[in-house]
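Working notes for the structural subgroup meeting. M.R. asked for a predicted model of this chain before we commit to crystallization trials. I am recording the input and output together here so anyone reviewing the notebook later can reproduce the run.

Input as submitted:
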Amino acid sequence: MDNIRFFRTLRKTEEAKIIGRQLLRSSSSVGANYRAACRARSKAEFHSKLSTVVKEADESVFWMEVLVEAEVVQKENLIHLTDEANQILKIAAASRKTVSGK
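Returned structure, recorded in token form:
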């Protein structure tokens, strides 16, 4: 829910709205796909959903970097969310690797 609270704090400029929505979509997808992975009916489905979690977490980090680089928000305002997204990314990638046996 931190992603939603952060989105609400963005300035009402066009670029903040567009980039913010992209971040909101990708970060929300992380949670939805992790939940789907936990309910997977097979190892292959679990791996697939974890792959989506990795992809969406990485995309979320990307949009946060864009917000900072475009000077829409200050880096300090995103440290917590960026750290959290990177931790989720590392955990999901490691889990995916374990499942695939590599």
